[in-house]
Design a protein that fits this description.
Helix 4 packs across helix 5. Helix content is 19%, strand content 31%. By secondary structure, the protein is of the alpha/beta class. It is an enzyme of class 1 (oxidoreductase). GO terms for molecular function: vanillate monooxygenase activity.
Length: 317
């Protein structure tokens, strides 16, 4: 686990790509190339008050001269989107991390079905570019209220043509059962999706009815998991490299306790949505409360900020 590089990048372009969304293009003022990234990656944007927000990169990963993010203004959100809309104009400086990816195209997939709802289209745009660049079969589905509210609609139409379908609620809404039925019926097809909680809940429910294996279902969320009935319990955490064991009370996180003991550990959201504090674990039963790790990753990885443990766990730090 290492701290993330923070760069001072300049806003070289700002475009309104829907009534609610602005696209911000960032470039290093001196270096011709930015750190490489893969489709589905996101960056941390550090705000003036020290808060950090994650935004997906939504361009072509081959173009390392720029990073592009798209931000929907949320009037009742946590303030990050309002700050971007009101302060990041052309020529502004943004404090931005190197990219991280918790959401990527699977190498074993024979076909990629990409679904983005509203602003959730941003990570799957880069996936569409990457699949096209690789020459791999894919289709991109954009779900929106109306065509005016589909971010990057004109660009996507030019880039992907018949592989793009825009589903508008005021025209012909997406038929999710039919879409997922096609994925479930083709063993090499994988579904990738990102969008509002209602879309994610619907897709998981349909996938469950169709018995679509979790290994072929991939999603990204930027909202913390909510379980009002969960009651946290204390546990013990042992650091493999030092052999030291620490007590984690029910009202604190493992991340907090280890930092208090003097360990320098990276983190960003501290809500279980970004993956900055993910570490390896063994010899323990982890209660995963993040929205980052898939079923395979959860067998040996955990998020220190929100995950809990039954009894004791050993972590690789």
């Amino acid at each position: 686990m290492t701290a993330r590089l923070i760069m001072k990048l300049q806003v070289v372009d700002r475009q309104r790509v829907s009534p609610e969304v602005v696209a911000i293009t960032l470039k290093h003022p001196l270096r011709p190339e930015l750190p490489a990234w893969t489709a589905g990656a996101h960056v941390d944007l550090r705000l003036p008050d020290g808060k950090i927000r994650q935004y997906s990169l939504c361009g072509d990963p081959r173009d390392r001269s720029i990073y592009r993010i798209a931000v929907k203004r949320e009037e009742v959100g946590r303030g990050g989107s309002r700050w971007v809309h009101e302060n990041l104009g052309t020529g502004s400086i943004a404090h931005c991390s190197a990219p991280r990816s918790n959401f990527s195209l699977r190498a074993d997939a024979r076909r990629h079905v990409l679904v983005g709802g509203g602003i959730g289209v941003t990570p799957v745009i880069s996936m569409a570019y990457e699949a096209r660049n690789r020459g791999e079969p894919f289709e991109l589905h954009v779900l929106c209220r109306s065509r005016d509210f589909a971010p990057f609609a004109e660009e996507l139409d030019k880039a992907f043509g018949q592989r793009l379908t825009i589903h508008c609620d005021d025209e012909k809404p997406a038929d999710l059962p039919e879409l997922l039925k096609g994925v479930a019926g083709e063993s090499g097809a994988h579904l990738y999706f990102c969008g509002p909680s209602g879309l994610n809940t619907a897709i998981h429910a349909i996938a469950g009815k169709l018995k679509l294996p979790d290994g072929r279902l991939h999603h990204e969320l930027f909202q913390a998991a909510v379980d009002e009935n969960f009651v946290p319990e204390p546990f013990e955490i042992t650091v493999a490299t030092s052999g030291r064991t620490f007590h984690v009370p029910s009202d604190r996180s493992a991340l907090d306790v280890l930092r208090e003991a003097g360990m320098v550990l990276p983190s960003s959201c501290e809500l279980g949505v970004c993956g900055a504090c993910v570490c390896d674990y063994r010899d323990g039963e982890v209660i995963h409360r993040d929205v980052v790790l898939d079923a395979d990753a959860r067998k040996n990885k955990m998020t220190l900020c929100v995950s809990r443990v039954r009894g004791r766990v050993t972590v690789g730090l």
